[in-house]
Amino acid sequence: METPPPAPSLSRTGVISVSKRIVKDNYFHFIDLSFLFQPLAIAILITPVLRLSGHHHKSPIHHLLCILTSYILSLSAIAAVTFSTHNAMQGKPIKLFTSIKTLTTSFFPILWTAIVIHLLQFFISLAFLVLVGSIVAVPQNLGLGFVILDHENPTEFTWWLHAVIGGTLLVILVFFQANWSLAYPVVVAESKRGLAALIRSTYLVTGSRLVSLSLLSYYGVSGFLLVLFYTDVELVNGSFDLRNWPTFFTTFAGTCCLMMYMLMSTVGNTVLYMHCKALHEVDEQFAKIVTVASNSSTIMIPSATSRPPANPLSTTGILSESNRVLKVNYGHFYTLSLFFLPISFSIFTNPNLRLSGELLSGELFTGDHLHSFLHKPPLFHLLTLYILSLSAIATVTFTAFHGFSGKPIKLTTAIKSLKSSFFPLVSTSILIHILLIFISITFLVLIKSIVVLLQNLGLGFVMEYENSIYLATGFALIVINICFYLNWSLAFAIAVTESKWGFEALVRSSRLVKGMRSVSLYLLLYFVSYGGLVVFVCTDASGSRRSPFVFPVIFGSLFLMMMLLVSVVANTVLYVRCRGLRGELGIEVGEKRVCFKLDSDDEKVSHVVTVGAGA
Questions:
Q1: Under DSSP, is residue 291 helix (H, G, I), strand (E, B) or coil?
Q2: Among 68, 75, 82, 71, which residue's Cα sits nearest to residue 110?
Q3: Which of 252, 276, 313, 380 has the highest count of CB atoms within 10 angstroms of its CB?
Q4: What is the rounded radius of gyration, in angstroms, for the C-alpha atoms of the chain?
Q5: Is 387 left (phi over 0), alpha (psi -120 to 50) or beta?
Q6: 502/507 Cα distance (integer angstroms)
Q7: What pLDDT digit, counting tens, does each position of 195-245 carry?
Q8: Transmembrane stretches, by residue range (predicted)?
Q9: Residue 224 confidence (pLDDT)
């Protein structure tokens, strides 16, 4: 077999184009990994503002811990994103757990390589400054009166001299960074570390050093301008307070942009590594992975038809199928989502449901406030919200489940299904609430018994609201409830579609979700995070004098309504996938038994009738 000719040089535009394509094909996967960049992005964004505005009063130890945490999470993000990009370009399926697990083998090599790079940059800078100092010392020793730095009488010449020295040092460091830019992909893909990774990177980047410099300048300058713009905006406002919703929104938007810059730069670096590897070591494997069009100088990665489709059992696959189901019957689903509107609206307008500030301040636990709180909510109001929400879950689940067959479901049919599914759903919901309350009480009694035992032993253990043990106990209780909820996450879908209720539905859910709990957890975190963020922003905005009350409430209510709709559809899709995983794809629809699937290439839901009525 003839060896294909070396690929021509790649341009910065080509690298960015391929990077965008890879991220777009695995959008949710890379977005999840990008959250590891969040601490560093926040630190880079707000630290200049805090220092310039005089709000930075943290202790050195606290500051050091923040730096170490951001540094470790950023290196973890680089390792995971590099691994995912490398596998995606090879056409391999990528999973979030697999990318995270690679940290067990790649984190310490990447950490050691990063430390070596920092040490080399430090010694290069030190050697350069010593050299400059030696050169400047010559005219001083000759009595020429040459002074490089005079704090008392600075001149224009000394300022320009410092600018030239600083610019020269920056150019030298950027040049070395361009040579070592592929070190992290080398560590992840080839298991090399330290100086070996730097030497390998220098060899691979030969011939593409200008592309590396261009990428480094592109993302570096863009990020610097973003931080500069944010700092200027906040300093002009005069007060930096994240409790002020315009400041919070600006910080949130800037952090997201900076996170995306870091994500895209890491993906682009890995794409450049794959190209350079193909350029220097053209063989059958990498010639198929990376082919450069001679005219456009753009990497052509395998097309969607040649690569395996997205894993339907992943979080991305579940959300993708949910969007397709919604798109086919969007009018039907949007009508049913109106059942969610009352509870969505109440979350923003009812003071009794907006307890976040009271919980954080501790005012909720005072005797008078607790007594008034327990007597404020009208029972009829709560029952109405509860009934409408369960009705929405029942009708949306019924429609999404039967919509897989491709048969249009009438709105009246979905409403009529409440006669057979509402009471099983209510009984299952009440049972879940009772069990969660019982589990919480049991856990708190156990913790209280342990505290009393420690106090009786004379250890002087005191558990107060301000105590960190109190917060740890609350966090542990939340984790325990989430674990049980994950086992019961399919109970509502089972109550609607299989007419099982109570303990039978919970046991059935625990069996079906086995092996898919991670997907259920990611779906829960996904919807809770985005929904909670919208509630926080819109609730704070509605209380601000800078914006009319009605607009944040309307926007937040509609958005939360859609989030609840999509979450129920996604839960139904997960239920169907869990049944399919266990060979239960046959569903009774009318008088026929059908098998259904979602065609990943089509925009509509397709179905195939496999067994007739007489089967």
A1: strand
A2: 75
A3: 276
A4: 30
A5: alpha
A6: 9
A7: 888 998 888 888 788 888 888 888 888 888 887 777 766 665 666 665 666
A8: 27-49, 61-85, 106-139, 159-189, 210-230, 245-264, 330-348, 379-401, 422-447, 467-497, 518-537, 549-576
A9: 81
Inter-residue contact 237 to 230 (CB < 8 Å):
no
Q: In what order do the strands lie in the sheet with 587-589?
A: 587-589, 592-597, 606-611
Residue positions counted in the chain? 615
More confident: 366 or 173: 173
pTM to 2 decimal places: 0.48
User: What does the block give as tokens for 232?
Assistant: 């200027």
| Residue 608 confidence (pLDDT) | 37
Q: Cβ distance 136 to 164 under 8 Å?
A: no
- Strands 606-611 vs 592-597: parallel, antiparallel or unpaired: antiparallel
- CA dist., res. 255 & res. 141, Å (int): 51
**Residue 434: strand pairing partners:** none
Q: Which DSSP string corresponds to 196-260?
A: HHHHHHHHHTTT-HHHHHHHHHHHHHHHHHHHHHHHHHHHHH----TTSHHHHHHHHHHHHHHHH
Tokens of 489: 């996450």
Do residues 566 and 577 lie in contact, with contact meaning Cβ atoms separated by under 8 Å? Answer: no
**pLDDT, tens digit, 9 for 90 and up, residues 275-319:** 888 877 644 344 444 444 333 334 444 433 333 444 556 777 788
Identify the H or E element spanning 567: helix 550-581
* Section 50-57 average pLDDT: 64
pLDDT digits (tens, 9 = 90+) for 478-515: 888 888 888 888 888 888 888 888 888 888 888 888 87
Q: What is the DSSP letter of 337?
A: G
Stated as kind and residue range, the H or E segment containing 73 is helix 60-89
DSSP state at residue 405: T
Condensed to tens digits (0 to 9), the pLDDT of residues 420-467 reads: 888 888 888 888 889 888 988 888 888 888 877 777 776 655 555 555
CB contact burial 303-340 (16+ within 10 A = b; e otherwise): eeeebeebebbbbbbbbbbbebbbebbeebbeebbebb
261 — pLDDT class (breaks 50, 70, 90): confident
Helix H or strand E segment including 595: strand 592-597
CA distances in angstroms from 374 to 45, 322, 371, 437, listed in the order given? 43, 39, 5, 17
Give the pairing type, strands 592-597 and 587-589: antiparallel
Which DSSP string do the residues of 129-193 spell out, in sequence order?
Answer: HHHHHHHHHHHHHTT----S--SSS--HHHHHHHHHHHHHHHHHHHHHHHHTTTHHHHHHHH---
